[in-house]
From TrEMBL:
Record's protein name: Aminopeptidase N
Organism whose genome encodes this protein: Rhizobium paknamense
Swiss-Prot/TrEMBL catalytic activity: Release of an N-terminal amino acid, Xaa-|-Yaa- from a peptide, amide or arylamide. Xaa is preferably Ala, but may be most amino acids including Pro (slow action). When a terminal hydrophobic residue is followed by a prolyl residue, the two may be released as an intact Xaa-Pro dipeptide
Start and end residues of each Aminopeptidase N-like N-terminal domain: 92-193
Domain of life: Bacteria
Length: 881
């Protein structure tokens, strides 16, 4: 295992390799504990490289069995092995040469799930970012592209299935009880896209005919018996393939596309060339076991990994600093896909909620980093919401600035110019500059400056002159390593609304670049003046969330209410409701904190109830409107001296007030949203369920009785309704008999399905209050928990630390001490999992001082422990800094 080295890798130090890797030939002799890997690598020295430079290959947890140079055993004096490398000297100046490396690895002992490991008896690999070096010594970096042939030899009875990237070459028997298969991937790829799977799995098969008429075999491999549960994923795959052809002109490029679902996986899924490997949570679904959210996640992740075939695989990253080049762009693509398949506005609202609660929080704390970082100690810790989600927003801003046509041209140029290459963010941006003639220099700061821009907005209306002036100011708070920032190019979509809600059209606009409905804020302070405005307008700014910024704009409740009722951008309507709710909630939290009375707000309540009851709006939107800002959102808005208990009480009081006034409305909604037909996971049906269940939650608030939720639990004929009813019971009435009965009924019904039991875990982990920790430890000791499976750990311990503010942040600090113990435990087996759990502590400095002191002490226990992994060391150091 890699333990702390403290070494910093800098973008500025990037250098190409001295050697080109022409071909890779791998032979695996699979064995649970002693797998033999033979790697035949053909290299030649680059013309401009130092003729004396040695070949340095990365390696980790490997036993070197033999080493050949051009088929001959290498003299011991010629090479050197260290715990993380193999260095070979005296290599030819220009002619190609062959290095053959045989290593021994132990898949069964691989608990960190990087490299070759076993999941439920299936051999599988995970190589991004630096897992391939745990298979053999290799130039394990993304700018080394090569063509791979893979031979797999394994016991035939236990592993009827032998898979790798590319196209199947052939297979045959191989000695007693064994067989082998050979695969060839004609597309040059970096080692992080390598994959191998061997085992005994069931399969779902289909085909897809591409744009140019080629037939591609589609296969999804799952545990035997689970085949029917892969049907939705297969459907999502075919829709993704078609969409990528239609919208981006991207066609698939091999004869076969495979997905394998495994139960032990550190992330969501992995885009290995032609052989995606998935966390089974993001493949398996049926109405009885999957929620609408699960269906939406499956659709999005299947699409995301498929889209990587062009954005990530055909064009990959020069180095790991460029991670957003593939991830930000691919998230943008999967967002657009889901928007096209579902409701665009509702999808956008969900994206922005997620961005604010995760990415804005990251950007405001000790782990803040640019979309393209300039330095890292552990690359695993940079698979972040900043790289992914903010990276996607940066791509979206390019589209907003250029408009759809030029954006498409720029992307086409990118695909054409960089196909087969390992590219950089600069290469990407240059394509848009080239097709548009625009200068993207200032815009590129979005890649390099961390922190969420704060935009101040003030407006003035001059009735006599018929002008409306918007004064904008931008500032970006200091973040680690970046005390001072430069002004950025911020594209803000806008509309001016008249008193009746209709759009007002100015005759001229001065003060800066304005293209159609976008104000381009480029200076630190900038005034835009709109002429020909006869009445006081209401400004709707940052429509559709065109820029990932925070606006500081005190609009009157009347103005917000006008936007909430009349904007034709639904996102902006939802935003106006949020802008009304947040000040009410923060004021309530402050009141709760100092013991004064919490005063609900009548305008907010009425506006919300009006939207909730408005049948002309789609149910999914109304459900979003009814979901007021979370406790975490409120805490972030307050910013310091947070008392999570006060925030909780405040929010509950406001919700209770809305529930009481709206009881009739919610009862009507609850009845009218009942879907009597057969279950369908489509977006419209899911939206009805979302609205119905939002109403159920308010009804529980209003009635203070578990009866309705218990009835809903009994009546549920799908997992969305069942788990929502259980969640309402657990959140509102944790000690009620009805709740205990529902929990045990759920348990006895689903105890054979660990993925469903994860819902049971996370619902219980989220129950607020001081008893939460005792509940967690009891569940950990129970029969369904498995500390070796990342999904279980995230469902129980992750839900507690990330999503139960009152339980985790209990005032005596026990929550933090518990987490510290868990971090140290998991760090020994799976450092990536441990490091990710630890990020739940990143906002500790925002807490009131008593809790902050406990949090700090717990972090110091971690920091001073022996033998920390590089992963946890990096996070704990940054959080404490
Ligand atoms: N590249 C994967 C994705 O975003 C994520 C991933 C990273 C998976 C590292 C595993 C390991 O699609
Ligand atoms: Zn990705």
């Amino acid at each position: 295992m890699r333990t702390e080295t403290g070494q910093v890798i800098n973008l500025a130090d990037y250098r190409p390799t001295d050697f080109v890797l022409e071909r890779v030939d791998l032979t695996f002799e699979l064995d649970p504990t002693e797998t033999k890997v033979e790697a035949r690598l053909i290299f030649h020295r680059r013309e401009d490289a130092d003729p004396a430079a040695p070949l340095v290959l990365a390696g980790e947890d490997l036993v070197l069995v033999s080493l050949l140079f051009d088929q001959m055993e290498m003299e011991p004096g010629r090479y050197h092995v260290s715990p993380d490398s193999l260095t070979i000297n005296d290599l030819p100046k220009s002619e190609p040469f062959e290095i053959t490396i045989t290593t021994m690895i132990n898949p069964e002992a691989n608990t960190q799930l990087m490299g070759l490991y076993r999941s439920n008896g299936v051999y599988c690999t995970q190589c991004e970012a630096e897992g391939f070096r745990r298979i053999t010594y290799f130039p394990d970096r993304p700018d080394v592209l090569s063509v791979y042939t893979v031979n797999i030899i394994a016991d035939k009875a236990a592993n009827p299935l032998l898979l790798s990237n590319g196209n199947f070459l052939g297979g045959a028997g191989y000695g007693e009880g064994k067989h082998f298969a050979a695969w060839f991937d004609p597309h040059p790829k970096p080692s992080y896209l390598f994959a191998l799977v061997a085992g005994d799995l069931g399969v779902v098969e289909d085909t897809f005919t591409t744009l140019s008429g080629r037939e591609v075999a589609l296969k999804i491999y799952v545990e035997h018996g689970k085949e029917p549960n892969a049907a939705y994923a297969m459907d999502a795959l075919k829709r993704s393939m078609k969409w990528d052809e239609e919208v981006f002109g991207r066609e698939y490029d091999l004869d076969i596309f495979m997905i394998v679902a495994v139960s032990d996986f550190n992330f969501g899924a992995m885009e290995n060339k032609g052989l995606n490997i998935f966390n089974d949570k993001y493949i398996l679904a049926d109405p009885e076991t999957a929620t609408d959210q699960d269906y939406a996640n499956i659709e999005a992740i299947v699409a995301h990994e498929y889209f990587h075939n062009w954005t990530g695989n055909r064009i990959t990253c020069r180095d790991w600093f460029q991670l957003c080049l593939k991830e930000g762009l691919t998230v943008y693509r999967d967002h657009e896909f889901s928007a096209d398949q579902r409701s665009r506005a509702v999808k956008r609202i969900a994206e922005v909620r997620h961005l604010r609660s995760e990415q804005f929080a990251e950007d405001a704390g000790p782990l803040a980093h640019p979309v393209r970082p300039a330095a890292y100690k552990e690359i695993n810790n940079f698979y972040t919401t900043t790289v992914y989600e903010k990276g996607s927003e940066v791509t979206r801003m390019i589209a907003t600035i250029l408009g759809a046509d030029l954006f498409k041209k720029g992307l086409d140029l990118y695909f054409e110019r960089h196909d087969g290459q390992a590219a950089t963010v600069e290469d990407f941006v240059q394509c848009f500059a080239d097709v548009s003639g625009r200068d993207f220099t200032q815009f590129s700061l979005w890649y390099n400056q961390s922190g969420t821009p704060q935009i101040s907005v003030e407006t003035a209306f001059d009735a006599a002159a018929k002008t409306f002036t918007v004064n904008l100011g931008q500032s970006i708070p200091p973040t680690p390593g970046q005390p001072v920032k430069q002004p950025m190019h911020i594209p803000l979509k806008f509309a001016l609304l008249g008193a009746d809600g209709a759009g007002l059209a100015p005759t001229t606009i001065t003060g800066g670049d304005v293209s159609e409905d976008v104000l381009h804020l480029t200076l630190q302070n900038q005034s835009f003046t709109f002429s020909g405005i006869a009445e006081q307008p209401v400004l709707s700014l940052n429509r559709g969330f065109s820029a990932p910024v925070t606006l500081h704009f005190s609009q009157s409740p009347e103005a917000l209410s006008l936007i909430a009722r009349h904007e034709n951008d639904l996102f902006s309507r939802w935003q106006a409701l949020t802008d009304m709710a947040l000040p009410v909630l923060t004021a309530a939290a402050k009141a709760a904190g100092n013991g004064s009375e919490i005063v609900p707000d009548a305008v907010l309540k009425q506006t919300l109830l009006t939207v909730a009851a408005d049948d002309s709006l789609e149910p999914a939107f109304r459900a979003q409107a009814l979901t007021i800002p979370s406790e975490m959102d409120i805490a972030r808005a307050i910013g310091s001296d947070i008392d999570p208990d006060a925030v909780h009480r405040a929010r509950q009081t406001i919700l209770g007030d809305i529930a009481l006034t709206g009881a009739d409305t919610f009862a009507t909604i609850y009845q009218s949203m009942q879907d009597k037909g057969a279950f369908s996971p489509d977006a419209a049906s899911a939206g009805k369920r979302a609205l119905k269940n939002a109403a159920l939650s308010y009804l529980a608030h209003a009635s203070k009785s578990p009866t309705a939720a218990a009835q809903a639990f009994a009546d549920a004929d799908n997992m969305t309704d069942l788990s929502q009813a259980l969640s309402v019971l657990a959140q509102h009435f944790p000690d009620a008999e009805e709740t205990q009965a529902a929990l045990s009924s759920f348990e006895s019904r689903f105890n054979g399905n660990p993925l469903v039991m994860d819902k049971w875990f996370s619902i219980q982990a989220g129950i607020p209050g001081e008893k939460a920790l005792a509940r967690i430890t009891a569940l950990m000791a129970g029969p369904h928990f498995n500390a070796g499976n990342p999904n279980r750990v995230r469902a129980l311990i992750g839900s507690f630390a990330f999503s139960n503010p009152t339980g985790f942040h209990r005032p005596d600090g026990e929550g933090y001490r518990f987490l510290a113990g868990e971090i140290l435990f998991h760090d020994k087996r799976n450092p990536q999992l441990a490091a990710r759990l630890l990020t739940s502590m990143r906002s500790w400095r925002m807490l009131e001082k008593n809790r902050a002191a406990h949090a700090k002490a717990a972090l110091e226990t971690i920091s001073t422990a022996d033998g920390l992994s590089n992963d946890v060391r990096d996070i704990v150091d940054r959080i404490l800094e």
